[in-house]
Design goal:
The protein is mainly beta. It has 13 helices and 59 strands. The chain folds into 5 domains: 197 residues, Jelly Rolls (Sandwich); 80 residues, Sandwich (Immunoglobulin-like), CATH 2.60.40; 290 residues, TIM Barrel, CATH 3.20.20; 109 residues, Immunoglobulin-like, CATH 2.60.40.10; 279 residues, Beta-galactosidase, Chain A, domain 5, CATH 2.70.98. A hairpin with a 2-residue loop joins strand 44 and strand 45. The protein is globular and about 100 Å long. The structure holds 1-methylethyl 1-thio-beta-D-galactopyranoside.
Length: 988
């Protein structure tokens, strides 16, 4: 690299040349020319393949392709074959040799050209050219004049085009390099994608910048407003609602009885700046004051609790280019799921997203475009964060973050970046923010060991015990006593937890309980909002759709499905994890107390009282509705609890169910729903709910074993059941052909079994113990006058540890008269040394069929496991086997229905009825566990003509070990002596 090299900017550490100073993103009535649309495009393979004269206005580009701006060029052509390069996914590793600031000379470079017309009357002599996002470095020519170059993929870059722009035809040429020195600062855990991926425009230049400072004093109820305006001429401020009209923006104006802005009541005051030149700029002003008080994170004088998510920008077809509709979808889905906070991991989002956060109400941790994680494997050797040569680049990114987004009331915290080690450049960035904007707090998790330059103590993926210790202020001291005193005075934030990869996460309610128990704990952000799967299709004659993850584009270094770790599937369908999170973080907690004949309502809101909610009750007898109505709950203030006696109608409904009911379980449910439409959900949308068992089921009479088991022709007959006399397998029940059941302990490994970011994954011990290759050895099949006993042993080759199992079959006089019910009691006895938990403990059987109707009474409607079961409620549900599969991007164990009392599975040939004693877990799928485990993508799963049933006594918890702790001790499934029972009968 030398100074004469016109491409030297690609590798030098400079953040750019020729750019305008950063400023706020704002709307204005001055004319703007949108340059989004089709541009001419050519992808050069590297710096040796550039088009010499491509920036010349008369260069003939008609043979070039057309590519949409904004877009990521690697996404072009999807879901078919990518047309330009291919997406590549790594979490930590750089996808090129680490030799900062050098990047490969084989550096895919997009050459973009666009002609546009500047209409008469457009103030071409005072205009800026604005790029909202270009990944990763670029240089710009307008009408053959080089304007400059820039880095910082997800921050805005503007150039003054006053001299180069002219009325009529203009030609813009932009060269975008996939790799640059900036790539070393942009090692976020996501797909590597390139191009002009956010909008481009030319805007008339008027007011340069402004900074709205609007604070709220909770002791007086007063708001103070001052707007610092930078403009070539003067400007006046109007906020009609506040009685400010054509006034000096600098104020300050002290306004009595202002309504503050919060996530729950995002009160925005409409205002306007009008410059002397006549430019009008709309303002949306939110008054709020962020402060740490006695170690507690407060806004407007009240503590806040972050029920958050980490959000990357992603769409399965367009990558990091999002439409506003997609942003709206994200914000509404968050609000609808009780989420109140978002960390813009790990870069500033499209600025329109922050407008939506202001409008609908979300606390925002706005994060800088910074991550140097790929230096960690070499112990942070040569990490840019501590190298003076990179200081300017750090400060530039930080300034571009703060300046662009400083006018958003939703932004309460600036986050320097993610996973970039520690160092002087980060400290300098924090110091710069402090002098520029003292109205927000500074976050950076990487500084957790000292917290020397941050205002929040932040960690990722710690377990609940450590969290509780921090909540109590009992964390281990830092090396330096001064830092220690500082850190102990800080509120704590879990900037990432609850790794939502694959099935899970488990254990969220444990975190939430700890968070709510300690004022110092300001809550946290689940990792992460959305799976970044890429929409693809197979090349079959009849192409099948699937979502690609790391490795699917032939990357030589990649991190597989670690990119699919969100609460939403790539198409933004909520996963069971999101439904669980919604319940765990509900801001109103209802408790149904049948013994005391009371309900209580506890309000966990920041400022909102419960008056925006309607409460309703309903009673179901074995899942059949027997009564419902409205419930009057006095308005409950934030922090308060209200207790309500059951109204007479509830008591009457319960009495009726008790006297004339089914004799089964009677559940009383209470839900809290929106009284009126909110901006983010319609009236009737449910916010919180609870259930209580009001009448316990009448105790079932133990069915008396009645029938003898008779052996004949290689079979054993027991009532309606026929067994194979040698294998002891149940082969027929009534008219239904069956296979099994057999003791089964294996699950299709979930991501939380297969991976462990901090240690040995669970799968290692399981494979060592041979749990995936257990052999079922039948020792005896013994019919007698009361039933049939099958004795077997489950063990792996080479191992002496085994599970002894006795299947005791009998026929009882169940209510399903006629044939009677076939009863199975399984007695499992571990033998030998068992040091590993069991993945599951239950029986597996199958019946013929490709799909089936499933009806059950138990927990539902969704998937649930022992440590992710807050979102399911007791009721009667109907679904189909196909609909009961949860489509995790990488197939794995899924779809369990928890604590099922009764189920009916109806295929084309008949109905199998199951009864738990008292409950059983039910997983039903059209393929085997082995097929599920072998599948890499959803389209690999093809039904095998049988319905596979798993009836489990228990499952091992899910946890979130793929990046975090495994299941807590109470959710570990140990191999211990166990007896469980289930009954079968048939219909039709
Ligand atoms: C942590 C990262 O901050 C985040 O970007 C993401 O990679 C997440 O983990 C896992 O999905 S880093 C982790 C290795 C502790």
């Amino acid at each position: 690299m030398n100074d004469l090299d016109p491409n030297a900017y690609v590798e030098d550490r400079s953040p750019g040349t020729g750019r305008l100073r950063p400023r706020a993103a704002f709307a204005s009535d001055l004319p703007t020319l949108a340059l989004d649309g089709d541009w001419r495009f050519r992808l050069a393979s590297g710096l040796d393949d550039l088009t010499g004269d491509f920036s010349a206005p008369h260069f003939d580009d008609t043979a070039w392709d057309l590519l949409a701006v904004p877009s990521c060029w690697q996404m072009s052509g999807l879901p078919g074959e990518p047309r330009y390069g291919a997406p590549a996914y790594t979490n930590i590793a750089y996808p090129f040799p680490v030799d900062p600031p050098r990047v490969p000379r084989q550096n895919p470079t997009g050459e973009y050209r666009r002609e546009f017309n500047v209409p008469d009357g457009f103030p071409a002599s005072a205009a800026v050219l604005r790029f909202e996002g270009v990944d990763s470095a670029f240089a710009v020519w307008l009408n053959g004049v080089r304007l400059g170059d820039g880095k910082g993929s997800r921050v805005t870059t503007e150039f003054d085009v006053s001299a180069a722009l002219r009325p009529g035809r203009n030609v813009l040429a932009v060269r975008v390099h996939q790799w640059s020195s900036g790539s070393y600062l942009e090692d976020q855990d996501m797909w590597w994608l390139s191009g002009i991926f956010r909008s481009v425009s030319v805007a008339a230049r008027g007011v340069e910048d402004f900074f709205v400072r609007a604070t709220f004093d909770h002791t007086t109820g007063q708001g103070t407003l001052a707007v610092d305006v930078t403009a070539p001429c003067g400007a006046l401020l109007s906020v009609p609602e506040l009685g400010i009209s054509g006034a000096d923006p600098a104020g300050p104006y002290v306004i009595d009885s202002v309504e503050p802005w919060s996530d729950e009541q995002p009160r925005l005051y409409a205002g306007e700046l009008v410059s002397d030149a006549g430019e009008r700029i709309p303002l949306r002003i939110g008054f709020r004051t962020v402060a740490v008080v006695d170690g507690v994170l407060t806004v407007n004088g009240r503590p806040i609790s972050l029920r958050g998510v980490n959000r990357h920008e992603w769409h399965p077809l367009t990558g990091r280019t999002l439409t506003e509709d997609t942003m709206v979808t994200d914000v509404l889905l968050m609000k609808q799921h009780n989420i109140n906070a978002v960390r813009t991991s790990h870069y500033p989002p499209d600025h329109r997203f922050l407008d939506l956060c202001d409008e609908h109400g979300l606390w925002v941790f706005c994060e800088g475009d910074l991550e140097t994680h790929g230096f960690e494997p070499d112990n942070w050797h040569r990490n840019p964060s501590n190298d003076p040569a990179w200081r300017e680049a750090y400060l530039d990114r930080t300034a571009r973050l703060v300046e662009r987004d400083k006018n958003h009331p939703s932004v309460i915290v600036w986050s320097l970046g993610n996973e970039s080690g520690t160092g002087a450049n980060l400290a300098a960035a924090a110091a710069w923010i402090r002098q520029r904007d003292d109205s927000r707090l500074i976050h950076y998790e990487g500084d957790f060991a000292s917290c020397a330059y941050v205002d929040l103590y932040s960690r990722m993926y710690i377990g609940v015990d450590e969290l509780a210790a921090i909540g109590r202020g009992q964390e281990a001291p830092t090396a330096d006593p001064a830092d220690d005193a500082h850190r102990r005075a800080l509120p704590f934030v879990l900037c990432e937890y609850g790794h939502a990869m694959g099935t899970g996460p488990g254990g969220l309610s444990e975190y939430q309980q700890v968070i709510e128990a300690h004022p110092r704990l300001a809550g946290g952000f689940i990792w992460e909002w959305l799976d970044h799967g890429i929409a693809r299709r197979t090349e079959d004659q009849e192409p099948r759709a699937f979502y690609a993850y790391g490795g699917d584009f032939g990357e030589e270094v990649h991190d597989g499905a670690f990119v699919a770790d969100g609460l939403l599937f790539p198409d933004r369908t909520p996963s069971p994890g999101l439904v669980e999170y919604k319940k765990v973080i509900e801001p109103i907690r209802i408790h149904v107390d049948p013994a005391a004949r009371q309900f209580s309502v506890h309000n966990l809101h920041h400022v909102r009282d419960s008056g925006y909610l309607d409460f309703r009750w309903s009673v179901e007898d074995r899942g059949d509705p027997v009564g419902s109505g409205d419930l009057k709950v006095p308005t409950t203030a934030p922090g308060a609890t209200t207790t309500v006696e059951w109204p007479a109608e509830v008591a009457a409904a319960l009495d009726a169910a008790r006297e004339n009911g089914s004799g089964g379980e009677v559940w009383l449910s209470v839900t809290a729903v929106l009284v009126a439409d909110e901006s983010w959900a319609g009236a009737g949308h449910e916010i919180a709910w609870a259930q209580g068992l009001a009448v316990a089921p009448a105790s079932c009479s133990v069915p008396s074993p009645s029938a003898p088991a008779l052996a004949h022709d290689g079979h054993v007959t027991l009532g309606p059941a026929q067994f194979d006399a040698r294998s002891g397998e149940l082969i027929r029940l009534g008219g239904l052909e069956l296979g099994g059941p057999r003791l089964d302990i294996w699950r299709a490994p979930i991501d939380n079994d297969l991976l462990n970011a901090f240690g040995e994954p669970q799968i290692t011990a399981w494979l060592d113990a041979g749990l995936h290759r257990m052999r079922h050895e039948v020792l005896s099949v013994e019919p007698d006058t009361q039933g049939l006993t099958v004795t077997a042993r489950l063990a792996a080759a080479g191992s002496s540890a085994a599970l002894g199992v006795v299947y005791r079959w009998s026929v009882g006089d169940g209510p399903d008269a006629g044939q009677g019910r076939l009863r199975l009691e399984c007695t499992v006895t571990p033998d030998g040394a068992w040091s590993v938990p069991l993945p599951r403990l239950g029986i597996a059987l199958s019946l013929p069929g490709t799909d089936a109707e499933v009806e059950w009474f138990g927990l539902g409607p969704g998937e649930a496991y022992r440590d992710s079961r807050n979102a399911v409620r007791v009721g009667r549900y109907r679904s189909t086997v196909s609909a009961m599969q949860t489509p995790y991007v990488r197939p794995q164990e899924n779809g369990n229905r928890h604590q099922v009392r009764r189920a009916e599975i109806t295929t084309a040939v008949g109905t199998l009825r199951l009864t738990g004693d008292p409950v059983i877990d039910l997983t039903v799928r059209p393929w085997s566990t082995a097929a599920l485990a072998a599948a890499a993508h959803q389209h690999d799963l093809v039904g095998d003509g049988r319905i596979h049933l798993h009836l489990d006594h228990a499952h091992h918890g899910l946890g979130s070990a793929s990046c975090g702790p495994g299941p807590s001790a109470s959710d570990v499934l140990a191999a211990v002596p166990t007896v469980f029972r289930v009954e079968f009968s048939t219909g039709r």
